[in-house]
Specification:
single chain, Rossmann fold, 7-stranded parallel β-sheet, about 25% strand, binds flavin-adenine dinucleotide
Amino acid sequence: MAKVLVVADIKGGALKGSFAELVSTANDLGAEVAAVAVGAGVKALAADLATGTKTQYVADDASLEKLTAAALTAAVVDAATQFGADQVWFASTEAAKAAAPRIAAKLDAACVTDITDVQVDGSQVVILRPAVAGKVVEKVEVKADKVVAIVRAGAFDAKEGLVASENLVELSTPEADLRATIQEILTEAGGAVDLADAKIVVSCGRGAKNEEGVALLKGLAEDLNAGFGASRAMVDSGFMPHDSQVGQTGKVVAPSLYIACGISGAIQHLAGMNGSKVIVAINKDADAPIFDIADYGIVGDLFEIVPIMREEIKKVRS
Ligand SMILES: Cc1cc2nc3c(=O)[nH]c(=O)nc-3n(C[C@H](O)[C@H](O)[C@H](O)COP(=O)(O)OP(=O)(O)OC[C@H]3O[C@@H](n4cnc5c(N)ncnc54)[C@H](O)[C@@H]3O)c2cc1C
């Protein structure tokens, strides 16, 4: 039986939705599943960590509040070694991308990133991941005994009814690594919905033109309690922050609903959102490539369409 260690992604003192998605899938594959949580105050999450896992490893110390890749690496390697994990699974975050290759090197494991699906073919686990900016799906057969894997947000579904068995193991606090320390964590503006976690994403392209267009689409995102993303064109022109960029060189999202507003559908943008379950595109050019992948297309001026949508949403809500 495979032994899968799922690394908890924690934000604002709570487990992010990706944890339940990874634990559910590991259980579906028939693995023995453990969790590891690293940070300040993470012991308080013991009950949540126990859902779907047999053992919960925690490294809990005030010094881990500003968690470095080195500290995360040390704690996860410690947990993986104690558990005898042959697979370590991360949700796709910047911290995961920084720590996963280090963990793989220390455990002498393969490292596979950007995973969108996992299939079992006989005794062989086959990993699927997009390649060439999402144009093809690559099948990866891992030959190494161990693998460290990073899974795309929204790739797996969380299931209800997982059995919880609390078995907390406290890890020793990783020693401070003075080669890199974190001085300050700059958080997003309060209230903003995290793009990676959002079930709905409204994205803003060059068709939004100016601040007025951005404000209109931000309003739509707020109405839907959605994450607010952007194409690179809007980031490069300074209308949207860098961390809102969706695409090959931005964030990869896979929400239930992606609403692309005034976005042409360049391959580099599609690479960041073509895993979305339902795609709605609003564009005044009927030949825009975004319509090739959209489930629902609205041909027209977003400055006319979005206010109508907002009115209709208001009516439904009330
Ligand atoms: C190496 C590399 C990496 C890249 N990485 C990324 C990335 O990560 N993410 C990304 O997004 N891009 C990326 N790009 C850029 C990408 O190639 C495109 O240039 C960019 O996605 C275009 O953004 P856009 O669709 O907003 O703008 P445009 O391509 O200019 O499209 C604007 C669209 O808005 C429509 N429109 C105009 N006015 C209206 C209106 N009033 N109402 C409705 N529709 C309207 C137009 O018909 C048009 O289709 C990358 C490029 C390179 C070379």
